[in-house]
Write a structure and sequence with these properties.
It comes from Microbulbifer epialgicus. The chain is mainly α. It is built from four helices and no strands.
């Protein structure tokens, strides 16, 4: 049993395997949840999340990581662009 205030984290492979018990092997949600040691509500949520990922409505972990990386890169490029604008304006004044 976990102590109050701590959360257990599960790997994506574990979640997919737990969902597969219901979707592929025909277990009921409560039976599958008990078999892997989680709550039925967790398993229901994982099933819903996996369906959304498969339909393309929700990003999976790899897509989320790629999106985060691209957003960081965009912020960096915008900052560099602003620095170059200021530098070009400064040197344009010096030339005149």
């Amino acid at each position: 049993m976990t102590t109050k205030g701590t959360r257990r984290h599960f790997k994506p492979e574990f979640k997919k395997d737990a969902v597969a018990l219901v979707s592929e092997q025909g277990y009921s949600i409560p039976t599958a949840a008990e078999a892997v040691g989680i709550t039925a509500n967790n398993l229901r949520r994982w099933i819903k999340e996996l369906k959304l990922e498969e339909s393309g409505v929700r990003l999976d972990a790899g897509e989320r990581a790629e999106l985060d990386r691209l957003l960081r890169e965009i912020r960096q490029l915008r900052m560099e662009k602003e620095i170059l604008k200021k530098a070009s304006a400064f040197f344009a004044k010096e030339i005149k």
